[in-house]
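[09:14] KT: can someone run the structure on this one? pasting the chain below
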Amino acid sequence: MVGSVGTAATQGWGNGFMSRTYFLVLGSLIVLGGSFRTQAQESETHIHVIVDMVQLNVAVTDNKGDYVTGLRPQDFSVTEDGIVQKIATFAEGNEATRRVVDIAPTAGKASSTPGEGEASGLGSLVAGADVFILFDTSNYMYRGFVFAQDAIADFVRSLETADKVAFYSYSRNLLRATPLTADRSQLLRGVRTTVAGDDAALYNCLLLTLKDAAKFTGRKVVVVFSNGPDNASMVPPEDVAELAQSTGIPVYMISTQQAKLEPVSTTVFERMTAATGGKAYFAKSWRDERRAFASIRDDLAHLYSLSYYPQPNPNGGWRAITVKLMGERTKNYHIRTRDGYRPQPTRISANGASGSVSESDPN
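[09:31] RB: done, structure tokens below
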């Protein structure tokens, strides 16, 4: 029964994004003619939406697929639900994030060659990022299990300048083999001690991984090694994609061509990664994954980091984000970033005490 639920959810998303509407009804107890306060009134809560800052990771490429560097804040236009936003902070590659008012306007020409313009340190790749690796140990991985372990170990070694890395594995359940750490030897031990499992609950476990990542401030990314469909999740993939979008965490999927034999899963992988600003990679075999690793590191190294404080917006639900490039010289460039977020509510009790505060994007 569990397996059929996961499969149905996946098939629904394979045919297009589902849309859902949620209604929240808040009631309060009104006592007429009395001066006393009931216990229900004392525990009354109000829901407020607070969005402190929204951060975007934006990749810009030209018609050849090469990364475009050297762009400045004035080259970007950001709207939220059609409302023009003012960019507050800006950075390119591994530059330190700066307030836009501290960046002197320049007439520099955009460059599509790494090392030109103002981004001189792109070689540090994922510098300062927290990377969460999620490894499929289900029965879909039996044939290439050892090779996949080798591929992940190579990937971990290649993350020399990442801040910290976590290694999780999953089949029916999630195993947090190595919590976020800077100790690469500990990570490699976690990779080597994983064992094969049974059914695959990818979306359940990816949701939990995203929730873990969202607890940490700074730049985060989730990299999933998966080789087959989901046959055991209760969580539909569109819910997972929405959480990744709302928390600003790009998801990258690495798999083999074998996974493409299941077209629904392939569609889900591609749509989910695109919705979060990440990518999906399908190599011939796990022995041929180095190109995917290099591509992910290269992608992270060329991201522009933009943030803004949202203008007043009465919409407490899904907010659509649109990023465009300004000027004639950028008309043939292409942008990849997340396309929206859902503000998280803050519960404030009747006495004014605040409950949990959640930003739209702790990224």
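[09:33] KT: thanks! The first strand starts at residue 45 and ends at 49.
[09:34] RB: yep, looked fine to me
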